[in-house]
TrEMBL record:
The keyword Cell inner membrane applies. One of its GO terms (cellular component) is plasma membrane. It comes from [Clostridium] asparagiforme DSM 15981. It is a multi-pass membrane protein. It is found in: Cell inner membrane. One of its GO terms (molecular function) is transmembrane transporter activity. This is TRAP transporter, DctM subunit. Keywords: Cell inner membrane, Cell membrane, Membrane, Transmembrane, Transmembrane helix. It comes from the Bacteria. InterPro entries: DctM, TRAP_DctM. Pfam families: DctM.
Length: 434
């Protein structure tokens, strides 16, 4: 075994061993990188330099702003308004509260950008409400956790910013636009699955549809939804950068939460900012340590070797695309979302582009694959949050989620093999990344 191969074995072997031993992922990334450098006999002086370089990026400044915006809007009384709006839209259907749950997640995800925040905020309201109306508690939890993944696709999503930065030369605005149709497609597939189950189990309908009530709720929810418009259309229209739009959105969210909806007082704002710091510290440490890991991968030519290994197995583009999805799904079962984006993108993106998958399309594939991973044991963070909120054992939640896994996989395959699902909206509105 030559020195290069030994270094790769040390890097990847130690990393996956520490992941299986449940090391904090940032420690696993950093320690495996250090062990790799030691195995190569290299000086460790570059470690700190690489960490600083990893977070020294103007575009990454958007990440803390988007997280802060999501925390402010999520704690500022937005949830109830968006649930009422969703109820006015789809509550009249069979299994109406399940449909409300799914549509509310689409609206709320566009504000929080976080599946965990969606599950915690909406789940604590909607799951007890659904159970009181005669829905099974495991079904209610399954609908909540699966629909929360819409928030990862609907902008503004800080995970998309992380992907754009890691992939390089990708327009954040185009990536934001690319998420709308896949997010809507995911919502539609989950609604079809929910409707079939609701008819089978004879779940109740809601109140009759009222156009007057719909316009009333739109008026109430306008201030919340406008935050998304500021970010997306500001970036796409070239009025400001993604970082500038995120900063403006934070100020806007503060005004809406404190002065318009009055869901937060100034003590609550300080509490929310403290929670943001906790989340940000985790994300930024991951980005910093992942830069060392990525540097090791590049120096050892792992992306090239992975590409040659996969294309050596088959030259069939369909099989290669399925293999990319399978790798991401497996990683999603054992790792959190941000590390997957940071570590897997440099390895898998060249393979994806070599078989004709656009980098923006691949970004949507990565995000949805990671979202499915958030719902799968043993490291499914959203699965654990849903189980904790509903107090339903995780085994029952997983069993109830099985039909929805199928809906999500179908959506993933459509995104993979029908490029227009992701690329049509960016191409129509311009700013398509090349």
């Amino acid at each position: 075994m030559d020195a290069n191969t030994m270094a790769i074995v040390v890097l990847l072997g130690s990393f996956f061993l520490m992941v299986l031993l449940r090391f904090p992922i940032a420690y696993a990334v950093a320690l495996s990188s250090v062990l790799c450098l030691l195995a190569q006999g290299k000086n460790l002086n570059s470690v700190c330099q690489l960490m600083v370089k990893g977070i020294s990026s103007f575009s990454l400044m958007a990440v803390p702003f988007f997280i802060t915006m999501g925390c402010l809007m999520g704690s500022g009384g937005i949830s109830e308004k968006l649930i009422a709006l969703a109820n006015a839209c789809v509550g009249w259907m069979r299994g109406g509260m399940a449909m409300v749950n799914i549509v509310a997640s689409y609206f709320f995800g566009g504000i929080s950008g976080s599946a965990s925040a969606d599950t915690a905020s909406l789940g604590s309201i909607l799951i007890p409400m659904m159970v009181d109306q005669g829905y099974d508690d495991d079904f209610s939890t399954a609908v909540t956790i699966t629909s929360s993944c819409e928030g990862l696709l609907v902008p503004p999503s800080h995970n998309m910013v992380i992907y754009a930065t890691t992939a390089g030369s990708i327009s954040v605005g185009s990536l934001f636009l690319a998420g709308y149709l896949p997010g809507a497609l995911l919502a539609l597939s989950l609604m079809i699955g929910s409707y079939i189950i609701s008819v089978k189990r004879n779940y109740p309908k809601g109140d009759k549809f009222s156009l007057i009530n719909l316009f009333k709720q739109l008026g109430i929810s306008f201030w919340a939804l406008a935050a998304v418009l500021i970010v997306v259309f500001g970036v796409v229209g070239g009025v400001f950068t993604a970082t500038e739009s995120a900063a403006i959105a934070v100020i806007y969210s503060l005004i809406v939460s404190v002065f318009i909806y009055r869901g937060l007082d100034w003590k609550g704002v300080w509490r929310v900012l403290g929670d943001c710091v906790d989340t940000l510290s985790i994300v930024l440490i991951l980005i910093a340590t992942s830069n060392i890991f990525g540097n090791c991968l590049t120096q050892l030519h792992v992306p090239d070797m992975a590409a040659k290994a996969m294309t050596g197995l088959t030259d069939n583009r369909i099989l290669l695309a399925l293999m990319l999805n399978l790798i991401l799904l497996v990683l999603g079962c054992i790792m959190d979302m941000a590390p997957i984006i940071l570590i897997a993108t440099p390895i898998l993106l060249p393979i994806a582009t070599s078989i004709g998958i656009d980098p923006i399309q691949f970004g949507i594939m990565v995000v949805l694959n990671c979202g499915i991973g958030l719902l799968t044991p043993p490291v499914g963070a959203v699965l654990f949050i849903g189980s904790a909120v509903s107090k339903v054992p995780m085994e029952r939640v997983v069993k109830a989620t099985l039909p929805f896994y199928l809906c999500m996989i179908i959506t993933l395959l459509l995104i993979t093999f029908v490029p227009a699902v992701s690329l049509w909206l960016p191409s129509v509105l311009g700013g398509m990344a090349k």
